[in-house]
Amino acid sequence: MPDLVLAAAALAGLTLYMYAQLTALAVLAGSKGRLSKEYVKSKQGEPPPEWVARSGRNFINLCELPVLFYALVAFHLALPGTADALQTGLGWGFVATRFAHSFVHVTINHVGLRFLFHRAGAVILIVMFVRFVLAVA
């Protein structure tokens, strides 16, 4: 079980890193006059530069599907003995897809690769939930 918790911690670390990156990029854009206070306040007016917006969208992605992963890890913690080595491996696989998705998103932003990593992670998460339900049934 600790390995699955470590996977969740790694994913949380990625999420916090992306939040820090987004904050730094927004401050940089603001200092260069490329991010208006009006846009930050109301999402009206000139949007932020793509290099800021992309980090923001990636952070939002890390607050969506991974929430289900965190819930699954909590379920495993609540029901000891339900996470075997395969489940842990799948958990790390899910985390790897999120790291890959984030890397692609904030660098080359290749939509096909992003889609591949995002969907692979979703499939892994579905398999993990099915395995969990079968383990407790």
Question: In terms of topology, how is this protein built?
Answer:
Layout: H1 2-31, H2 37-42, H3 50-61, H4 65-78, H5 85-106, H6 111-136
Concise summary:
The chain is mostly helical. The protein has one domain (2-136): Four Helix Bundle (Hemerythrin (Met), subunit A) (Up-down Bundle).
Question: What would you note in describing this structure?
Answer:
There is one protein chain. This protein is mostly helical and 137 residues long. It has a single domain, classed as Four Helix Bundle (Hemerythrin (Met), subunit A) (Up-down Bundle), CATH 1.20.120. The chain is 80% helix and 0% strand. The protein is built from six helices and no strands. Helix 1 runs antiparallel to helix 3, helix 1 runs antiparallel to helix 4 and helix 4 runs parallel beside helix 6. It is elongated, with a radius of gyration of 18 Å. It starts with a helix and ends with a helix. The mean pLDDT is 95.
The CATH superfamily label reads Membrane associated eicosanoid/glutathione metabolism-like domain
CATH class: Mainly Alpha
**Domain count:** 1
Overall radius of gyration: 18 Å
Report the major sheet: none
CATH topology label: Four Helix Bundle (Hemerythrin (Met), subunit A)
Outline: elongated
Got a strand count? 0
